[in-house]
Design brief:
Helices cover 64% and strands 11% of the residues. The chain has helices spanning 6-18, 24-43, 59-73, 86-100, 102-107, and strands at 50-55, 77-82.
Length: 108
């Protein structure tokens, strides 16, 4: 595994999206699932399956939500702490409602 700076990761994401046509949402899903798989491989055999996830407002925050979703599917208990302003949290709730709207979901 390579560790890169935030700037380098942003550039890699930009290139994946613009040059290779990979949707940003797919990149986020893949990153989150990969992290969840790592957590499950390292800690999945423990009797107590609890985790705290810190999620920001940017793309890494989205990765955190994917990790939470994947671990929730495996019946882990968790606390997700959103490190963002109240404005962002309200905007996130609004977008989540739009995405949960069956009419919008079927239009995709």
């Amino acid at each position: 595994m390579k560790i890169v700076t935030a700037h380098t990761m942003q550039e890699l994401d930009r290139r994946a999206i613009n040059e290779y046509g990979i949707p940003g949402r797919d990149l986020m899903e893949q990153a989150g699932r990969g992290c969840a798989e790592h957590i499950l491989a390292a800690y999945g055999t423990r009797r107590s399956k609890r985790v705290v996830i810190l999620a920001g407002k940017g793309n890494n925050g989205g990765d955190g939500y994917v990790i939470a979703h994947c671990l929730l599917e495996k019946e882990w208990q968790m606390l997700v702490i959103v490190l963002a302003t109240a404005w962002f949290q309200a905007d996130r709730r609004r977008r989540r409602k739009q995405n949960d709207d069956p009419a919008r979901r079927n239009a995709r």
